[in-house]
Amino acid sequence: MVDHLFADARLAALYDDLCAGRADFAYYLPLVMSADSVLDVGCGTGELLRLARAAGHTGRLCGLDPAAGMLAQARRRSDVDWVHGDLASVSWRREFDLIVMTGHAFQVFVTDDELRSALRAIRAALTDDGRFAFETRNPAARAWERWTPGNAVEVTDASGAQVRVEHDVKEVDGDLVRFTQTYTSPGWSRPEVSWSTLRFLNGSALAAFLSEAHLRVAEQFGDWDRSPLAEACPEIITTAVPSPIR
Hints:
The chain is an alpha/beta fold. It has helices at residues 9-12, 15-18, 24-33, 47-54, 68-74, 112-125, 203-212, and strands at residues 37-41, 60-65, 81-84, 96-101, 126-137, 153-156, 162-173, 176-184, 192-199, 215-221, 235-242.
């Protein structure tokens, strides 16, 4: 669910600093706290589940991520079940009251087959009255137009060195956006560069995929303040619930 570069522990250690001040945790944390058993798909460094434990969550918390470097960060807290893998490598059945995907991890499913497979696994892992909460960027807001080297960000790593991160969009093909992420630091022998592709589904396409997986939209918002979904809003924040399998 995360960029393959985050298999590198050095880069994974930068992730929380790169995402500092993120608004989505204020939205997701109350959902997590209200559920007895929670699965965080694409959990990354596990920050959301670590915050939940620190806030007093006493139930089952499970984080799933394919990047070993990310999970090395997450495992600094041992009272959460950290699983190395992805939805294709697990087979949970009606085990979770809440499944979340944060950080726009939902957008890494770039083909119809990948998305269908992931949603089937999520539907299977939910209890009958469970909830699936996630977000995807609203394509109408065209966020990728701001992913330019001129909007690079800088963070300081554990050694005190400055690390610069640039995004550069290479191709927009329908609802797919392909781009590079380049990490540089004065003390490094070379930059670290990755290629990524994200899918920007509109609301109607998203609803159709959910319905096919026997999930229905229970609520949607356009931003983290729970403002209504509108044409120019930056996000499509969705809570879906199981619908009957006939």
